[in-house]
Amino acid sequence: MLELESKDYSVALRLLRQVKINTLFAEAVLAGSISGKLYTDSVVNPRAFYVAHPYGMSLLYGNTDNETFIEELRAYIMNTNGARSGAEWLQADPASGWSGIIDGILADHKGDIRKDTRVNFSFNRDAYLAAKAHYPRFSGSIVRTSKEQFLTQAGTVVPRYFWRDAGHFAEKGVGFTLLQDGTDAATAFAAYITKHQLEIGIETFEGYRGRGYALLAASRLIGYCLDQGLEPVWACRLENQGSYRLAQKLGFEPVLTLPYYRLAE
Q1: Is the pTM of this model over 0.85?
Q2: Quick one: DSSP state of residue 174?
Q3: Edge-to-edge strands of the sheet including 48-53?
């Protein structure tokens, strides 16, 4: 696996747009919104691609006929070459045949790879508007996420993991934070934005879970999307039933499942 420099990402970005699953996190890397890594089978004539987002998500797509690349991929997945500094969640273009190759590696190393399921959703505006009429009332406030909140919010899924810095988020991103008694209780934000789509990231902070705050924060962000002519995008692990159920309360309908591999540290 050969690492490409960012100036050479254009060919991978062009082919990425042919992949028929949610690939916005990979596009964020290839479009230069956030720093990540891109590996390929050839610098001269790249045909297979592995995009690694710094949050710990990765995507494999392209041709499967380079045996050297496959062996190097095996070493990367097992981290016998020390290329990975932490765990990753890997998905592959279902049309490419890569999942079968990963399954073969999984069969040889069952203790080091976990296979879950990733769900892609489609947003149904009418279903969202019908459901919204029954959302609980909230007496607190939901505010536009500030630079200070960008820097101070701590959790598993918060804006600072998806944007270069607070200034970049303020200029190119958007988020809304629900306040309870003046304290950040939940946040919904753009993990990435294109001209037509916005992928949603969501976090309810410790001490405020189970109160429906994520629903209300996400609804505010979806309202922003509709006002701006953007399609809201949601994806999650099927095993994350909280996120899976929340998506459907927000008008998202599951349309595609695919293997999702957790690569151990």
Answers
A1: yes
A2: -
A3: 2-3, 37-40, 48-53, 57-62, 88-92, 252-263, 113-123, 235-237
